[in-house]
Amino acid sequence: MPLVTSKKMLLDAQKGGYAVGAFNVENMEMVKAVIAAAEELQAPVMLQTTPSTIKYGSLETYFAIVAAEAKKASIPVCLHLDHGSSFELAVQAVKAGYTSVMIDGSGESFEDNIAVSKRVVDVAEACGIPVEAELGKVGGKEDDLEAEADTNTDPAEAKEFVERTGISSLAVAIGTAHGFYAGTPVLDKERVSQIKEIVPVPLVLHGASGLTDEDVRECVERGICKVNFATELRKAYTDAGKKLIEEKPETFDPKKLGVVGMEAVKELVKGRMKVCGCNDKAE
Ligand SMILES: [Zn+2]
C-alpha cells in the first residue's frame, strides 16, 4: 500500500499499549529486510534515515526505494526522517515524500528547541505530516554528533514543550545512549511513567540498540509508543557479510552478501518487533 504517516500508527500504539518499531535503514537490502519482517509478523512499521544516511544516498533515493517496497506490502509502512538536523532538511524531507519527520533541537536551549520545533510543525502539519521532536539529551553518538552529558527529560518541561510546539510525538531521554553500550546502562524507567502521566502525545525511545528485551518491554509498558533501533541492524547486516567472506573467500557477487545480510536483519527485526508488541497490529 502507499506510505502512511506515523500519526494514526502511533496513536493506535498508545491506545493499545504497545510500541511501533522504527528501524534505521542504509540501503535497499535493509529496506527489504525490515518490510519483510513486518509483513511476516503483520506489524505496522517505520523505516527511518538519519542525515548522514541521506548524505550517503539522498532523500529522493531512499523515498523511491521505500515507497516501491511498501507498495508491494499489505502492512502500513511509514518513512521517517530521524534526527532532522535543521528546519531546511525537515522541509526537504516532506517535499521528497517522507511521511513523518523528526526535528532534533535537543542540543539547543529550551527556548530555541521550542522555536525550531514549532517552525517545523507549522510547515509539516500544513502538509499533513506529523513531527517528532526531542527534549533532553540522549547520550552517546547521535549520528555525527557527540552528546556531551546525559540529561534526562524533565516531565514539567516536556508538558510545556508539547503544548507550545504542537508536535505529534516526543523523544525522551531516560539514560539511553546511541550506539552500543560500553557498560550496563542506568535507565530511569520511572521517568517514562512520570512523563506519560502529564504529556498527551506518544513518547519515543531512542538508543535502544543493545538494551535487553526486558528493558525495552518495561519502557513500552510504561508508555513508550515508538522504539528506535539503528546500530544493531547495521552490525547484524555487516557481520553476516563478514561471516560469508570468511567461509567463502571466493565470494564476489554483492547479491550474495545482500542475501545473508537481509536474513540477519530480518531475524533481528522480527525479534525486536515481538518485544515491542507490534506484531499482529497491522490494520
Ligand atoms: Zn536517536
Low-confidence stretches: none
Annotation, overall tally of beta strands: 11
Count the helices. How many? 11
Structural class: alpha/beta
Task: Kindly report the average pLDDT value.
Answer: 94
| Oligomer designation | single chain
Order of neighbouring strands in the sheet with most strands: 1-2-3-4-5-8-10-11
Order of helices and strands: HEHEHHEHEHEEEHEEHEHEHH
Biggest sheet, open or closed, and with what strands and sense?
8 strands, parallel, barrel
**What is the end-to-end distance?**
11 Å
Overall form: globular
Which hetero ligands occur in this complex? Answer: zinc ion
Can you give keywords for this protein?
283 residues, alpha/beta, eight-stranded parallel barrel, three-stranded mixed sheet, binds zinc ion
